[in-house]
Each structure stands twice: as structure tokens, then as C-alpha cells.
Amino acid sequence: QYKFRDLTIEELKNVNKTYPNFTFSMNTYTFKDGSQKDLLNFSGTVPVKYGNSYNIPIHLWILDSHPFAPPICFLKPTVNMGISVGKHVDAHGRIYLPYLQNWSHPKSTVVGLIKEMIAKFEEELPLYSLSSSDAARQSELLSYIAKITEGETDVKSKSKIGGGKNEGCFKKITVVGAGDLGIACVLAVAAKGAADKVVLLDLSEGTAKGGTMDLEIFALPNVEISKDFSASADSKVVVLTVNSLGNAQTYLDVIQSNVDLFRGIIPAISHYSQDTVLLVASHPVEVMTYVSWKLSAFPKSRVIGVGANLDTERFQYILTNLLKAEVLAKDAWIIGEQGEDKVPSWTSCNLVAKQTEAMTARNSREKVANRGMEVLKGKGQRSWSVGLSVADLTDSILKDKRKVHSVSTLAKGCCNINSEVFLSLPCILGTSGVIEMVKLEEDPLVQEKLQSSAGSVHDLQQQLKL
């Protein structure tokens, strides 16, 4: 069942060598959504010095996408131990650590995780001794935790998402990343009303800060904030907004840092939502959409970048409302690469029969397009405006609107592009992602620009380490 069996076995050998007291077994794990899976797990104690020396019992579950997804970690207290809820441990004994949030193979290992666990527990001891009267209540709590972590079926009926709604109809969106863009997406999606539930997955270290804290204070209906990947389970759409804020010196280093970040995120997201549509808003969107596609192993139809959707909507608005070219606006699209290399194009349904009339129409259209592009240049992309664009895209996907959007999609085979690159092209979107690519008018200049963008994006991808 394990996708990377040899890597998993090799790592567990290292754990056994460093911590020989751990025992290994296969057991059933019940996820938050009630789904169950047989997973490898191991139990043991870790030595912690907190004045005196303590042996802290822990229980680790190894996901089947390991080592690309982090283990699920619990304390395993005995009946005479109480759980000290703190910044690294919740009331059910679930363990949360920066090492887990920043998990990235091959840098992250189970041995390294246990070492950080020991260090954090020495700062804040996670367990305490119970009196005999408290021990009885603790026994009840341990029984409940055992049901969660050892596959008892009666928990399943209580924990289905949607409070008993038909799971197939439950429209859940997860937004990964709690920066300005992530919060903007949550607010826009919630305002659009397309989703039954919106989960904000906050991968930052420590307690809630800034906007995330404000979202908790001014609680919105159907919005949940979590640091736990399992909260994303069974999402119909997962929006990726995270960008690395490392100390990279070059543009290539910045992108590689983002790739490393995604290596710890995409496998976990894919594990919990195997039928989701990935919607990438991280930068650079063409490259990070390609990275998401490769790391998830999803079909190309279910991995989409926000691409030029915002620019296209603005462009069509400018043509209709400012330049009074409503007829042209219906078939106008911004395509290609985000930034200065984007290019206006047209769908092929508006061709004129006579060649002379077609030439006149083309010249007139190009003048209008040039004016429209000049106006478009002055419009920046703020977090809230990208958030509105994301809400527009998720609405089309969740409601199966089959509306046409200019989004980053695999461009191989289009316009004589032979490399695996993602560029913005007009696509019909539905519940399964990209349903069909819309045919564009054949324009040699547009094709040349697309091929140039494809070449530069492909060259950049070749320098990255996936």
C-alpha cells in the first residue's frame, strides 16, 4: 500500500537503530472525516529531562505517502498521566510541531522529528501525574482517544463532515496559507457563498497572528482555521496561496524554496483529498502549477493555475465599458504567461468570410486591443483582487457552470508547444476541473509569443530540483 516502500523501510530502520525500544505494527487509523485506513505505526517512549528524567510515551502513524507527508503524532499517556494542553499538544494528545509543519523530504526524517519532540517537551512537559480520582476520568478520555486512533466504527458516524449531509454533495474548499492572499481568498469565497465550508490551513509556526487571529475573533459561519492537514479531507477544491519567505538570494533560489515548500504540502493534501481540484495561486503560477501537477500525480485536468483569469476579466470589462467594444469583448482573452509577456487573443468563432473584410476587422480589433492593454498595464494585482478571481474560479468549479476562464493549464500540444509547461489558455471549467480547451484564432504573432513563453518557463523548470 505504501507508495514509497523502500524509502519508508530505510527510514524506519534508522528509527529502530536510534530508538530500539519502539515497537512497530499495522493498525487501522480513523481520520477526522470518518474514513479509515490501515497504516504502519510505532509506539515507544522518548527520554525528556525536565528537572527529573521522564520517559514520555508517544504513538506515531506513518501515512502511505511517507516520506513526502509527515507522520501523525500523539501522546500515549497511561491512566495515571494527564495531558498538559499547550502550544505543541491539544486536549486529545495530538502533537503539533514546527518540524511537522515544515516537513520536506529528504531534509525531514522521523529521527529528526523525535529529536525536536524531545527538545520541545523539555521546554514544556506535555504530561503530569494524576491523583487516583483524576485517573478514572483520564481512563474515559483515553478510551475516547483509542476510538479515534484505533479505528472504532462508532466514531465514524459522529464525525462525518457536514453534520450528516450527503458527503457527495458537500462543497468544501480548503485554502492553504494564512498570509494576506490566503485570507483574501477565504473572505472572497465565503462572500460568494459557493461553498458549504471553507477551511483555512495555517502552516505558520506558533499561535495565530494578524489576520488569522482576527478571523478567529470575528468568527465567520462555515469557516474553520486549522494547522492540521487532515482538516482538508474531502475538499472539492484546494487553493494553494503559500509562498516561501526564505533568505534566497536569486530568483531561481526563491522558486526552489517554493518548490521545497510544496514538497511537504502537495503529497499530504493529495492524500486527504484524492479527487480534489488543485487551484494554484502561488508564484510564479506557471511553474508552481507544474510542480503541483508533478508532486500530486493528478490528471492534468485537475491541476489549474489562476493564470490570467483576473487580467482577462479586467480586459473584457475595459473593452465593454471603457472602449464600448462589447461585441469584441465576448471573444477576447488574455493568455500565455503572467506578467509582461501576457498577450491578448481571440476565439475563432468571429471570423469574417471575405478576406478583405477579415483584414479590416483584424486591424480594427488590434487597435482596440492595444488600447485595452495600455489601460490594463496600470492595474496591479492586490491580494483582495486575486482573492475575488479565486472565488470566481471556485464558483465555476463547484457549481459545474462550464464557464470559460483563462487559466494555467498544460499547454503541450497547443500552438506547436512540445514541452510540459503550464500557460494561460481559455478553458471550460466544471466539477472535474478543465473539461475542454477553447480553440483560439490562429495568429502567427500570438503563437510565436506563446512558444517563447513556453521556452522560458521550460528552461526555468529544468533548473529546479523536484
TrEMBL record:
InterPro entries recorded: L-lactate/malate_DH (IPR001557), Lactate/malate_DH_C (IPR022383), Lactate/malate_DH_N (IPR001236), Lactate_DH/Glyco_Ohase_4_C (IPR015955), NAD(P)-bd_dom_sf (IPR036291), UBQ-conjugating_enzyme/RWD (IPR016135), UEV_N (IPR008883)
Domain of life: Eukaryota
Gene3D superfamilies, per the entry: Lactate dehydrogenase/glycoside hydrolase, family 4, C-terminal (3.90.110.10), NAD(P)-binding Rossmann-like Domain (3.40.50.720), Ubiquitin Conjugating Enzyme (3.10.110.10)
Molecular function as annotated in GO: L-lactate dehydrogenase (NAD+) activity
Reactions catalysed according to its record: (S)-lactate + NAD(+) = pyruvate + NADH + H(+)
Boundaries of every UEV domain copy: 1-131
GO biological process, any: lactate metabolic process
PANTHER family per the UniProt record, alphabetical: L-2-HYDROXYCARBOXYLATE DEHYDROGENASE (NAD(P)(+)), UBIQUITIN-CONJUGATING ENZYME E2 VARIANT 3
UniProt function note: Interconverts simultaneously and stereospecifically pyruvate and lactate with concomitant interconversion of NADH and NAD(+).
Name of this chain's protein: UEVLD enzyme
Species annotation: Steatornis caripensis (Oilbird)
Lineage: Eukaryota, Metazoa, Chordata, Craniata, Vertebrata
The gene coding this protein: Uevld
